[in-house]
Amino acid sequence: MNNVNKTLYIPLYGKSYVSKKGIILHDNKAEEIWEKEGFELKGKSKSKWLAYYMGMRSKVFDMWLAQKMNEIENAIVVHIGCGMDSRVERVGTKGHLWFDVDFPEVIAERKRYFKESEEYHMIASDARKQEWMKELPKNKPAIIIMEGVSMYLTNDDLIALLSALKNHFSSLYLLMDCYTTFAAKASKYKNPINDVGVTEVHGLDEPKLLENSGLKFVKEYEMTPQILINELKGIEKSVFEKLYAGSVSKKMYRLYGYQYGEEI
C-alpha cells in the first residue's frame, strides 16, 4: 500500500481499541483485523485520546447513516474511502444497495475479511476517477459518507467528485469530515498520519465553497457529542474534552452535511 492507504490503519486501531474496552463503538471486526494485520504505531497514532476520537467520529457517522437509511428506504448507500471499516456490518444494509469504494490495493486487502452479497458490493478505484460511478444505479436517491477522505483531496477534486455524484443520482445526502486550513498546515509538522509517511493534506474553512458542485450545505454536525464523551470517566473524560471537544478541536476538525434534491 502507498502511504495514504496506510493511514486507514490509524482509525482501525482506534475502533479496535474502544471496542475492546466496551465503550463508544462495538466493532468485533475491527478487533479481528487489527489483531491479524496491525503493526506497531508510533507517536500520536497510538494515543488513547486519538483512539477515543476515532471511535466517536465513526459512531457519529454510523448514527447519521442509520437515520438516513430509515428515512429513505430506496436509497443507494456509498461509502467512499471505506478502508477496512466494518460500517456495513455495524449498521447493516437494511434492504439497501451498499457500495464500498477505495483504491484497488485496499479493496484487495478488504476482500480477505468481507464478502460481497446481493446488497453489498465493493468497488476498486481511485474515487477521483469518475468511471467507477458506472457501477452504481442511476437516478436513485443516494446516501454518501466520506470519513477521513476529504483532507487528501484538493477543493477542486472535491467539487469535481461531488458534481459527478450529483449528476448521477436523483437526490443526494452527504456527510463529510474536513480539516481546516490551519489543521492542514499544521499537519505538515505534527499529525498522526506523519507516522505512516503522509505530510500533504488539504483543509476547508468555508463549507459553502463546495456548493459550486451543485450540492447545498445543510449544517455542521458535532464530531464528539456529549452523549459519547460521557462514556469516558473521571480524568479521562476531562482530558479528552480539552484535547478533542473544545475550541482547540474546532480550529482543526469540522463535520459537514450537504444535500441535493428533495429535502426530508
Describe the fold and architecture:
The protein is an alpha/beta fold. It has a single domain (3-260), classed as Vaccinia Virus protein VP39 (Rossmann fold). 39% of the residues lie in helices and 17% in strands. The protein has helices at residues 3-6, 9-21, 28-37, 48-71, 87-91, 104-110, 155-168, 181-186, 226-229, 234-244, 247-250; strands spanning 76-80, 98-102, 120-124, 141-146, 171-179, 216-221, 253-260. The chain has a 7-stranded mixed beta sheet. β2 (98-102), α6 (104-110) and β3 form a beta-alpha-beta unit. α2 crosses α4 and α4 crosses α10 (234-244). Mean pLDDT is 89; it is low at 1-5 and 191-198.
Radius of gyration (CA) equals 17 Å
Number of helices: 11
Number of strands: 7
Q: Strand sequence of the main sheet, in spatial order? A: 3-2-1-4-5-7-6
SSE ordering = HHHHEHEHEEHEHEHHHE
Task: Estimate the strand proportion.
Answer: 15-25%
CATH level 1 name:
Alpha Beta
Write the CATH architecture name: 3-Layer(aba) Sandwich
User: What is the arithmetic mean of pLDDT?
Assistant: 89
- Percent helix range: 25-40%
Query: Which residues form runs of ≥5 with pLDDT under 50?
Result: 1-5, 191-198
Task: List key phrases describing it.
Rossmann fold, 11 helices, 17% strand, alpha/beta, seven-stranded mixed sheet, disordered N terminus, 264 residues
In short:
This protein is of the alpha/beta class and 264 residues long. The protein has helices spanning 3-6, 9-21, 28-37, 48-71, 87-91, 104-110, 155-168, 181-186, 226-229, 234-244, 247-250; strands spanning 76-80, 98-102, 120-124, 141-146, 171-179, 216-221, 253-260.
